[in-house]
Structure formats: C-alpha cells, structure tokens
Amino acid sequence: MQDLLVVNSLTKEFRPLLGRPFRALDGLSFTIREGEVFGLLGPNGAGKSTLIRMLAGYLRPTSGSATVDGVSITDRELKPLVGWAPQEDSFYSRLTVRENLRYFGSLYGLPRASLDGRAAELLTLLGLTEKADARAHALSGGMKKRLNLAIALVHSPRIVYLDEPTVGVDPISRHGLWEVIERLRDQKVTILYTSHYLEEVDRLCDRIAVIQRGKLVTIDTPKGLKKKHGRTLEEAFVALLGGG
Ligand SMILES: Nc1ncnc2c1ncn2[C@@H]1O[C@H](COP(=O)(O)OP(=O)(O)OP(=O)(O)O)[C@@H](O)[C@H]1O
Ligand SMILES: [Mg+2]
Questions:
Q1: What pLDDT is attached to residue 172?
Q2: C-beta 49 within 6 A of ligand 1
Q3: Is CATH 3.40.50.300 the classification given to domain 3-90+158-241?
Q4: Are the C-beta atoms of 3 and 56 separated by less than 8 Å?
Q5: 51 C-alpha to center of ligand 2: Å?
Q6: Neighbour count for residue 26 (Cβ, 10 Å)
Q7: Which atom of ligand 1 is nearest to the CA of 52?
Q8: Hey, is 32 helix, strand or coil?
Q9: Closest CA to ligand 1's atom 4
Q10: Is the pTM of this model over 0.85?
Q11: How far is CA 46 from CA 3, 8, 38, 151, 242, in A?
C-alpha cells in the first residue's frame, strides 16, 4: 500500500520569552500507509498532541518536514485532506450540535445544499441525533468527544487525527466509536490514533509508533510489540518505557 503521510526529521522547539527553549519533538521520522489505522503511543508529555497539531497545519515545525499525499503540512492545500479531533473541545459551545456541523461544513466549503444532509449523516453515525438541537456546552463529556469526532469528519478527509477520542466515553459509546473507526477503515480513510487505553489500541491499530520525549522509540505491529516485549500491549509499553 502507498504511503499517505510521510514525516521526515520533524522537530519542534518551543521558545519561551524567558528561559531555555524546550524541544518537544526531536527529529521524528515515520510513514503512514493509505488506509492504515496507525497508533501513536507515549507517556504524558511525549509530544503526541504537539505532533498532531503540526500534522494538522496548526503549529509550524522548527525543522524537518511532513507531507500528506505529497502536500506539505505548511501548505494551505493541506486543510481539505486532514481532519483533526483534538484532545480538547474543538466546537463552539454556544452553537447547537447541528449548527456546529453546519458551520464547520461551510468552513470547509461544502455546498450549502449538502450541509443539512451531511450533518444528519454524522449525527446518525455518532449517535447524536437526539441532541442535534442542544447547545454543545450542554452535552455530556462523552458526547462532546463524539461531536469533536463528527467535526473532524465533516469534510470527508483522507486522514483523520484522533487525539484521545475515548477519554471519558462510557463503555457502550466506546464500542460505538470503535465501530465508527472500523467503518472508516472499511472506507479506506487513514487514521492516526492516540490513546492511553492500550486494549483499544491493540484492537484497532495496524501498526503503532511509540514515542518518548519527542523521539521515536519503535514502530511495530501490536503483535510484534507483544512478541518482543510482553504478553499484553500494556506490559510491552511498560517494558519499553518503564526504565526511562
Ligand atoms: N505551547 C507550548 N509551549 C511550551 N511547551 C509546550 C507547548 N505545548 C506543549 N508543550 C510541551 O511539549 C511537551 C509535549 O506536550 P504534548 O501535549 O505534545 O504531550 P502529549 O504526548 O500529547 O501528552 P498527553 O498524553 O498528556 O496528552 C510537554 O512537555 C508540554 O509541556
Ligand atoms: Mg496529548
């Protein structure tokens, strides 16, 4: 399968006005193949969200490069190719769920006539139809996560970045989200997935990159990681990073 995302020596240094610069990502290189569900694991502060922000074109790299289908992450043309469900809420709290979907759809240039249809599709997909006319601030925590995901999908991107999409989501809704991800995979949508819940990473991901302090530790399949480092993915993760 072809590479869709190519990351080449990506580095990000945060430079505060006072104090020393902090290197959050340090020469990271890897590729994600078209149609792959690719896990990104690492302890708190490893640089996962920083990487995703850069890959979404939201933060500029200090050095290095990355492309999605040949388009640089610093290029305006990137936006339609990628969807991003950030770790934090990405919607307007005072708009309703449906209004948020319409708003983000129009931002991405969806024709006016198709906004309602697309919103309805996503409401069904994510089980939010009942809350379509509720203001987003009045959703429960798990529903907010689902709205984040719906917004990331509104323009049918080639690759979706999901930054801890199941935090605070109840077990039934979590299974529902996994089904959504499996459905996206069937539609050949490429997914970059971060989570601290390693059973779900094990279940969903074709390959996993483990990062620590902004550097790549290893890339392998869940099976390969377990074979080399522990019976479960959690054991493997602790064995790989526990000493650091
Ligand atoms: N805007 C910023 N300015 C300065 N430092 C930052 C900034 N954003 C992130 N960092 C630092 O970069 C490092 C990586 O943060 P990041 O949010 O990418 O971690 P993460 O792997 O997503 O962690 P978590 O699992 O907790 O979400 C942390 O040390 C963080 O404090
Ligand atoms: Mg994060």
A1: 87
A2: yes
A3: yes
A4: no
A5: 9
A6: 18
A7: 18
A8: strand
A9: 14
A10: yes
A11: 24, 18, 17, 26, 13
